[in-house]
Write a structure and sequence with these properties.
CATH superfamily: P-loop containing nucleotide triphosphate hydrolases
Radius of gyration: 19 Å
CATH architecture: 3-Layer(aba) Sandwich
Strand order of the largest sheet: 1-4-5-3-6-2-7-8
Number of domains: 1
Helix content: 25-40%
Number of strands: 8
Strand content: 5-15%
Low-confidence stretches: 1-10, 32-44, 49-53, 295-303
Largest sheet: 8 strands, mixed
Order of helices and strands: HHEHHEHEHHEEHHEHEHE
CATH topology: Rossmann fold
Number of helices: 11
Structural class: alpha/beta
Distance between the termini: 39 Å
Shape: globular
Mean pLDDT: 82
CATH class: Alpha Beta
């Protein structure tokens, strides 16, 4: 931020660097609120999700993604070459996956396999980060990712990936006769599926706040502890759905734009995320590294 004096950045990852730039803990706590400390727990083989004899699966046609378009726009591919940005998202996803697969011990994150990607304002890069996280997670060998477009006013997940449009999340919320699995799109990457935003409505927040939302999300994760739900939400200070979704997820990732997102905006946005106790920051648009690292170079050298 241009108004800040030079700050020492002790951490290496974008999550650590973001935390060092902002007093995020106090923003989440607010006046009189207890300290909120994100918990990092070791993976365990069990899950807190309710068991289901036959977890739902996707049976629709496989859709190719726009590989060339993704590469040109700076996205990673699950089977693509290692690069600096792919290594950054490897670090980010690893911390989120620890929370997502933390088991049912005393330090487990409830609904940790539901992750909300959000930002304070448009243009901070939350969709870019959500898609990259989903693509990076799709490279894992023992999980599957369902990327859900919850930005109903300005959906972009389908167009970004080059997938066909179709019914989606909002249609399922509005029509009890429509099954969620019938709207999920399978992609050419076996571990990645997409749930489009669906039809536009003026009552998106009210639908999200209904009991049907919780039922649908429980159905998507029940009986499948290895399934990650990753939500791309509208900006917190521009629309209300993200604040409602915060109560349905176990983890939230707040994307802040380097040299753009102000601390006041971050505080205001953080106040809307208090329904989710495990929130981390991701610093986007960084043009330097305090540690001088150059991720990706190592894999291209025969040392």
């Amino acid at each position: 931020m241009t108004k800040h004096s030079p700050i020492e950045l002790p951490g290496n990852s974008l999550l650590e660097r973001a935390s060092s730039l902002y007093d995020f803990g106090s923003a989440l706590r607010g006046p009189g609120m207890p300290l909120v400390v994100p918990q990092m727990v070791e993976p365990a083989p069990t899950s807190t999700e309710p068991a289901q004899a036959m977890p739902i699966s996707w049976s629709g046609a496989l859709h190719p993604v726009d590989r060339d378009g993704l590469t040109m726009a700076g996205f990673v591919l699950p089977d693509g070459p290692v690069s600096g940005i792919s290594e950054e998202f490897r670090i980010v996803k690893r911390q989120l996956l620890i929370g997502a697969r933390g088991g049912n011990g005393p330090d487990a994150i409830k609904r940790g396999n539901r992750i909300l990607v959000c930002s304070a304002h448009p243009g901070d890069g939350k969709t870019f980060c959500a898609v990259n996280l989903a693509l990076s997670m799709a490279a894992e060998k023992d999980i599957e990712v369902l990327l859900i477009d919850a930005d109903f006013a300005k959906p972009s997940i389908v167009s970004t990936l080059g997938l066909p449009d179709g019914p989606g999340f909002m249609d399922v919320l509005a029509d009890p006769a429509l099954s969620v699995e019938s709207c999920v799109m399978r992609t050419e990457f076996p571990s990645l599926a997409v749930l489009p935003a669906g039809s536009r409505t003026n009552n998106d927040t009210e639908y999200l706040a209904s009991a049907r939302t919780a039922q649908i999300l429980d159905t998507l994760t029940a009986g499948n502890p290895n399934r990650i739900l990753l939500f791309d939400s509208p900006p917190l200070l521009a629309a209300s759905p993200a604040a409602v979704l915060a109560g349905q997820v176990g983890q939230a990732l707040m994307v802040v734009r380097a040299d753009k997102t102000s601390e006041n905006a971050l505080r205001d946005a953080a106040n809307l995320l208090k329904a989710c106790a495990h929130v981390q920051l991701l610093l986007n648009g960084v043009k330097f590294s305090a540690s001088g690292r150059r991720f990706g170079n190592y894999y291209g050298k025969g040392e």
